[in-house]
Amino acid sequence: MLIDSDVLIWYLKGNKNAQNAINNNIPFKVSVINYMEIMQGMKNKKELKAFQKYLKKWLVSIMQINENISTRAMFLVEDYFLSHSLELGDAIIASTALENQEIVLTGNEKHYKFIPNIQIQKFTP
């Protein structure tokens, strides 16, 4: 299971559905893009340290970008940017999930649903 940034953000805001979703999927994975998106939303080092403690507690694997993932993301952007406004981060997250045969848990189903062969589990806050 690859958990998208929105679910992690809901968890950090105290959302019960996000807490249940995360607790029911330990251990899970996140893309390095998800990790960086969360970091960019932090207000200070204290919040960052707390998030990093959660990652350890959840036994999270951070999935890195490799040549196959970047090539696949490039083709996804080529195919879906003009028609579906696919953004770079979402293309890399989708490519990471596809390359590693992971299901994406996301509340932003619209970011991914048009991508062939991607497996999505919808999250509702």
The number of distinct structural domains comes to 1
- How would a crystallographer describe the biggest sheet? 3 strands, parallel
Radius of gyration: 14 Å
Poorly predicted runs: none
Instruction: Indicate the overall shape.
Output: globular
Summarize this structure briefly.
This protein has 125 residues and is an alpha/beta fold. The chain has helices at residues 5-12, 16-23, 32-40, 45-57, 67-84, 88-99; strands spanning 2-3, 29-31, 61-63, 103-106, 119-122.
Features:
globular; Rossmann fold; 5 strands; alpha/beta; two-stranded parallel sheet; 125 residues
What do you see in this structure?
The structure is a single chain. The model has no long low-confidence stretch (mean pLDDT 97). The chain has 125 residues and is of the alpha/beta class. The protein is globular. The longest helix is centred in the middle third of the chain and has 18 residues, at 67-84. The protein is 54% helix and 13% strand. The strands form two sheets. The protein has a three-stranded parallel β-sheet with strand order 1-4-5. Strands 2-3 form a two-stranded parallel ribbon. It has a single domain, classed as 5'-nuclease (Rossmann fold, 3-Layer(aba) Sandwich), CATH 3.40.50.1010.
